[in-house]
Amino acid sequence: MKIEQIYTSCLAQGAYYIESNGEVAIIDPLRETQHYVDKATANNAKIKFIFETHIHADFVSGHVDLAKKTGATIVFGPNAKTTFNSYNASDNEEFKVGNITIKVLHTPGHTLESVTYLLIDENGQHHAVFTGDTLFLGDVGRPDLAVKSDLTEKDLAGMLFQSLRSKIMTLDDAVIVYPAHGAGSACGKNLSKETVGTIGDQKNTNYALRSDMTKEEFVTEVLDGISPPPQYFAKNAKMNQSGYSNLEQVLSNGDTPLSAQVFEQLAKSEEALILDVRTQQDFIKNHIPGSIFIGLNGGFAPWVGALITDINQPILLVVPEGKSEEAVIRLARVGYDNTLGYLEGGMDAWIASGKTTDQIISISAKEFSTKTRENNLHVLDVRKDGEYNSMHLKLDDLQHFALDYINHQMDQIDANKTYYIHCAGGFRSVIAASILKARGFRNIVDIAGGFTALKKTDLSLSEFVCPSTI
To answer: Which stretches within 10-164 are classed as H helix?
Structure first.
């Protein structure tokens, strides 16, 4: 028996390759599927099943393409509805993969069709569970994504409580836990950086698995502090139910070099968004006017999904040399399939053609601290609410809204004022600056190094103090 976790850091997502006696099962495959096929071929094995723990909302699964390539059966849990051929497994149904058995445990709560897959080894022992978004290390899946008119997030949280107690916490402590996500995923709020654990560890450390916890306490704690889901979640879920374009075709269309002249023409004729995926330092120095920055070196795909509201938006790419294919694939992972091509030769070719460029003013944290002694500066903090509430600058004219919601909160700032903008380290602030500049806010100054650098200056900080109890 062979189990391999194939972890994709940008999405904080874990897919699984399971092989036994020449047969393979893939659990929660990513959009690009050829490497699963190649791995099985190299081992003289055949992919028999594609198991989905639920209809994913935070990425486009590769189940449709992989089934077409291999003839494998796509397996969902009860209640899953798709427009393509798939099999709905029943609770406790078992599937043979070589000498091992995969048993379906219906664990509704994150979504109604959510399942956990229990792997029973050659000796009949419970070896591991693939928990999808039902159980993470340190957390459980958010129960607010499948809300309907007759089903509230509290109802789903109650289902999740029962699923965990009746199906997962009853397993032996030594059973290995393989979740679908780790830290950085928006599918939970307290995920661990670790990506493999055990049932026993989770019983001891996961707040949601406390043995003395009531259902009411669970519902309250799980729902507390959940941010609204990113706008692309519902769109990815629909693609996972209805199918999508073949990735090879998306790559053929999108990984296309374009001259500066053609690139500029397409930007106008197709009303394409110019997405610059270089580093923030490169973007600050020189970029195409009106372009948006979201760098490949950060949480690229989730930020694209959160900030580009039209999933069918035509996109033109400005990429580092040799990174065009990677950029197109990472866009496709979250359903952005309408890439038209990339600027051949990058910014050097754009500049050589005599076309206009733009820049972002960026100053050091020390320089900013000096300016505050002379002027009442307007400051915009674009970190998440929790970061801001924990500690922030103590200034009279400080505004805060998380980058996630910038498209809805631009009316809160004045285009006639100059704003000094910061995040935690300098990545998100440049994304925000690029969006604001593209929308006509010209007086934007980036604070390099963000709050991490600002804390090292002599500026006053407002820190959250937990109230004492008597």
So the answer is: 34-42, 63-70, 153-163
CB 386 within 8 A of CB 424: no
Measured in whole angstroms, the distance separating CA 332 from the mean position of its chain's CA atoms is: 12
| Confidence (pTM) | 0.94
* Phi, psi angle pair for 447, to nearest 5°: -100, 105
CA 371 to chain CA mean position, Å = 37
Residues paired with 121 in a beta bridge:
none
Residues forming beta bridges with residue 116, ordered by sequence position? 105
Q: Copy the structure tokens of residue 461.
A: 């900080």
CA 174 from chain centre, in angstroms, equals: 30
φ, ψ of residue 238 in degrees (nearest 5): -65, -40
Both ends of the chain: CA-CA distance in Å?
A: 56
Q: In what order do the strands lie in the sheet with 339-343?
A: 257-258, 339-343, 315-318, 273-276, 292-293
Mean pLDDT by 10 residues, the chain (470 residues): 95 97 98 96 98 96 97 96 97 98 98 98 98 97 91 96 98 98 87 95 96 96 91 96 96 98 97 98 98 96 96 97 97 98 98 97 96 88 94 94 93 93 98 97 96 95 56
From CA 308, how far away is CA 293, in angstroms rounded? 11
For 73, phi and psi rounded to 5 degrees? Answer: -85, 130
For residues 296, 302, 307, 309, the Cα torsion angle rounded to the nearest 10 degrees is 120
What whole-number distance in Å separates Cα of residue 317 and Cα of residue 319? 6
Q: How many other C-beta atoms are found inside a 10 Å radius of the C-beta of residue 151?
A: 12
**At which residue do the structure tokens 């723990």 appear?**
53
Chain centroid to CA 333: 10
Domains of the chain: 2-234 (3.60.15.10), 246-352 (3.40.250.10), 361-463 (3.40.250.10)
| DSSP bridge partners of 343 | 258
Distance CA 299, CA 280 (A): 13
